[in-house]
Amino acid sequence: MLERQGKWLLQLRDDVAGIVYPGTWALFGGHLEPGETAMEAVQRELLEEINWTSTQLEPWFVQSSPQRVAHFFRGSLGVPLTELTLLEGQDMVLASLAELRSGEVLSPKNAEIRPFAPSLQWAVTELLKQ
């Protein structure tokens, strides 16, 4: 979960059948490649998805379900949104805490309000505990 000036970076997943939680807001990230650590995976995924990475990410929490184990990281987004290149997904935004509490966010590109993927909701729940 990347934070910039009190807002958090979200990815609107593609509306593609067969992907996990299509058309919902989520965090940038993905799966581990064989032999890869969770930290290596998040760095690779950020580079693949927004052409940016950070050496200042910190492990945050792990959420397990019967389908997967999700590793969450936190850090600062050290650049403005305009300096990121969206390479995966259909939109990205910096969402306020009020928007995160609501469970849905407006997509500027699609002019639609979209809900959160469960993984983003887990992160928001952890964030609100602090």
From TrEMBL:
This protein's UniProt keywords: Hydrolase
Molecular-function GO terms, alphabetical: hydrolase activity
The keyword Manganese belongs to this UniProt entry's keyword annotation: no
Domain of life: Bacteria
Name of one Pfam family that matches: NUDIX
Residue span, Nudix hydrolase domain: 1-130
CDD domains the UniProt entry points to: NUDIX_Hydrolase (cd18882)
Name of the protein described by the UniProt record: NUDIX hydrolase
Organism field: Synechococcus lacustris str. Tous
